[in-house]
Design goal:
By secondary structure, the protein is α+β, with helices and mostly antiparallel strands. It folds into two domains: 4-96, Ubiquitin-like (UB roll), CATH 3.10.20; 101-148, no CATH class. It has five helices and ten strands. The strands form three sheets. It has a five-stranded mixed sheet, covered by helices on one side. The termini are far apart.
């Protein structure tokens, strides 16, 4: 069976080879990139969001669910895709990852108190920057964010 190449922008490594019709997220996982997949690959969260920098025609069309999720995603651009929804159908697609770390719960944000962020801390559903890069996470800032909903299961029910 023919394999197709997925390139990663600004990455000195060789391309990842996948079988046709493989979800793009599987190329990310093959590269050993941490992808949270908080919605269970249903296209309801932002944790697998990527930018297609070359050959977008090498991916399947955007699904309606993916389009809905991207419409509320703060960092979405015209070349944004959810890697759990996009399948590789052609060769040499190139992707770039958004800068930031998605958190999966308020508790995970609390565990970062006292640490300096290296990258922005992002909301898992909207992609909003919760804490800017190079900032020390302090308790008073985290307490201001306590009202935010990180429960992907509730988002799934609301959007299903």
């Amino acid at each position: 069976m023919t394999s197709l190449k997925v390139q990663f922008a600004a990455d000195g490594h060789s391309a990842v080879e996948v079988k046709p019709e493989t979800h793009l997220i599987d190329a990310l996982l093959q590269r050993h990139l941490e992808v949270k997949q908080l919605c269970g690959r249903r296209g309801l969260c932002a944790t697998c969001h990527v930018y297609v920098t070359k050959k977008p025609e090498s991916l399947t069309e955007t699904t309606p669910r993916e389009a809905m999720t991207l419409s509320v995603l703060t960092g979405a651009r015209a070349n944004s895709r959810l890697s759990c929804q996009a399948k590789v159908i052609g060769d040499d697609v190139e992707i770039a990852l958004p800068e930031g770390l998605y958190i999966d719960s308020f508790e995970s944000l609390e565990k970062l108190i006292g640490q300096r962020t290296q990258v922005p801390i992002l909301h898992p559903v909207t992609g909003d920057v919760l804490v800017a890069a190079n900032k020390i996470i302090i308790r008073s800032s985290v307490e201001k964010l306590e009202h935010l909903n990180f429960d992907i299961a509730k988002v799934q029910l609301k959007n299903a």
